[in-house]
Write a structure and sequence with these properties.
The protein has 21 helices and 15 strands. It is α/β, with parallel strands linked by helices. Among the domains are: 85 residues, 2-Layer Sandwich (Gyrase A, domain 2); 136 residues, Isoleucyl-tRNA Synthetase, Domain 1 (Orthogonal Bundle). It binds one RNA strand through strand 1, helix 7, strand 10, helix 17 and helix 19.
RNA sequence: GCGCCAGUAGCUCAACAGGAUAGAGCAACAGCCUUCUAAGCUGUAGGUUAGUGGUUCGAGUCCACUCUGGCGUACCA
């Protein structure tokens, strides 16, 4: 719809050259008496043209070639807004388009042919996913859906590290639990993984080895733990309808010599140096605050080096867009990694880093502090079991990723019938129900009398349907999943109002059949939006 | 100390990308089901947009400073 107005302005540029290259924005006014669309372009041009904004607005309107079948009226309002009033019959055309495009309505091929990599979750396999990981998982998957929506081919990728200290401690934790289960009196160290799941893994090992672990290699404990935990993680993700395409093991970067190669490149370019037995990267020369260690004096690289190598592999894999998603606790890591990658001549503009703020888990008004090691966490599985995948997914994306999210468990559990996600799904189910009833009444869907859709509630719905495509594209291009949920809440609200004010059964036949077309269109858009968020669109509730 | 994110109604959040009189839900109060799902709708009440300056024809939105909270600021990831 905005494109249409933009085209009309484009054509007017011949007559008014000063419009060339200007940002002509159309917005939907807050107040209906200000029209259906509005632009502020006249006010933006006052300085350059040294004319009164209302005078410029008049010039622009005179130059526009407006088809009355589309735009019925324009006006100059306030300090110099140009307001457009759309033909209601034209607005109703959207119904036909929606009914034809069905599940594709609102999608775009703007980015078709492009490939994206979205890396998310990326938790090391030391324990079950927690509520904290949930926000990451859901945002990552939703962002992936959104990119697919506009044409990208998306690879969902999970990066992990099964070497390192964490994993050693994990293996030891399992071994000690085994020994304890066999009756040995060994104290379980405080800094080891305390969770119940460690004992479960230990039991599995014992069961598979006839209770004799004396001959077992230490590696087995770690590897079994990793395997079990990963299976568990994948199951958790599957419970949220998330499926990773690639599990990228950090270790392959060592095996393929990527880490060595990277070190050599830094050395060749004189970007690294040795000090106190460690190798440092000259990040201060690359515009960052201070130099950082990339190889410890023990000879072990810090996370920065493999992270850089990893990003280089992603760039080498020729993705057009690479998205990293992590929590604000990793805030400090990415500028160093990006600076390192850039210093070797790579184009880091293709990499977008999304940082979401923490989830504060509340339990009856109190903050629950969580730590995987201490095992006083609430698992994502438990949460999904309590409130369902749809609610979990919706809660995690309904707010801007930049803001903290309070997740009150008590509330989420008992809230399940006053929850926004139910509000949306209820609208969908209500329409399904209406359609079942109208079928019994022998009413058919018809596009022949859409001009009868004149009720205020109907016109508002039509306008909202018309903005779906624009709003979704905006949400995707700005990577703001919460815009999708905002749109859906507004659409559902408009539908519920329509429902109370406009009856189908009992209305005159032509009007009733036009309304059936309208609610069918609303149903499709709701389902498409819910699908984009990875939620179900139930026909009954 | 420095960096990033946030601060809007009692609570959780919107505000179309600087625009016109800041809007929803929850909670509170008052209404609406013999007719398509009341998990809904209507109405009332609730605001110095944390504060102070600035830029602008116009600021919740941009800039500066202050205050409050979160996260960082490792030879952890």
């Amino acid at each position: 719809m905005k494109n249409l107005l933009a085209d009309i302005f484009e054509a007017a540029k011949k007559e008014l050259p000063y419009l060339e290259g200007k940002p002509i924005n159309f917005s939907i006014p807050n107040r209906e008496e200000h029209g259906d669309y509005s632009t502020n372009i006249a006010m933006l041009l006052t300085k350059e043209l040294k004319k009164k904004p209302r005078q410029i607005a008049q010039e622009i309107i005179d130059a526009l070639d407006l088809n009355p079948a589309i735009v019925t009226k324009t006006e100059i309002a306030g300090p110099g807004f140009i307001n457009f009033y759309m033909n209601k019959n034209y607005l109703a055309n959207i119904i036909g388009i929606i009914l034809e495009e069905k599940s594709h309505f609102g999608k775009s091929d703007k980015y078709s042919g492009k490939r994206a990599n979205v890396e998310f979750v990326s938790a090391n396999p030391t324990g079950p996913l927690t509520v904290g990981h949930g926000r990451n998982a859901v945002i990552g998957d939703t962002v992936s859906n959104m990119l697919e929506w506009v044409g990208y081919e998306v690879d969902r990728e999970y990066y992990f590290n099964n070497a390192g200290r964490q994993m050693r401690v994990l293996g030891e934790s399992v071994k000690i639990r085994c020994q304890q289960l066999l009756g040995e009196e060994i104290e379980f160290p405080d800094d080891h993984y305390q969770g119940e799941y460690i004992i479960d893994i230990a039991k599995k090992i014992l069961a598979g080895n006839s209770n004799d672990i004396s001959s077992l290699d230490d590696k087995l404990f770690k590897e079994t733990a990793e395997k079990e935990i990963f299976a568990d993680i994948e199951k958790t993700l599957a419970g949220l309808n998330i499926k990773m395409k690639v599990f990228f093991n950090e270790n392959t970067l060592y095996e393929d010599g990527k880490i060595e190669g990277l070190l050599e490149q830094f050395k060749e370019k004189a970007l690294s140096y040795e000090k106190e037995g460690a190798i440092w990267l000259k990040l201060s020369e690359l515009g960052n605050e201070q130099d950082k260690v990339i190889v410890k004096s023990t000879g072990e690289p810090t996370y920065r080096l493999p992270d850089m190598a990893y990003h280089i592999t992603k760039l080498d894999r020729k993705y057009d867009l690479i998205i990293d998603l992590f929590g604000s606790d990793h805030m400090a890591t990415y500028p160093d990694v990006m600076a390192g990658v850039k210093s070797l001549g790579y184009d880091i503009d293709r990499i977008k880093v999304l940082i979401y703020q923490f989830v504060t888990l509340m339990q009856g008004g109190e903050v629950v502090k969580m730590s995987t090691r201490k095992a006083n966490f609430v698992t994502l599985d438990e949460l999904v079991e309590e409130v369902g995948a749809d609610v979990v997914r919706y809660f995690f994306v309904m707010r801007s990723i930049n803001t903290h999210l309070n997740f009150d468990l008590e509330l989420a559990k008992k809230q399940s019938d006053e929850n926004p996600v139910f509000y949306l799904q209820y609208a969908h189910a209500r329409i399904a129900s209406i359609l079942r009833m109208t079928k019994e009444e022998k009413l058919e869907i018809s596009l022949d009398h859409l001009n009868l859709l004149n009720h205020e509630a109907e016109v508002r719905l039509l306008k909202k349907l018309n903005s779906f495509r624009d709003d979704m594209l905006y949400a995707v291009e700005n990577l703001e999943p919460q815009k999708v949920s905002n749109y859906l809440e507004e659409l559902a609200a408009l539908f519920h109002r329509f429902y109370t004010e406009c009856r189908i059964i009992g209305s005159e036949k032509n009007l009733a059949e036009a309304r059936i077309a309208l609610v069918n269109a609303v149903k499709i858009v709701l389902a498409n939006g819910l699908g984009l968020l990875g939620l179900s669109a139930p026909d009954r509730m």
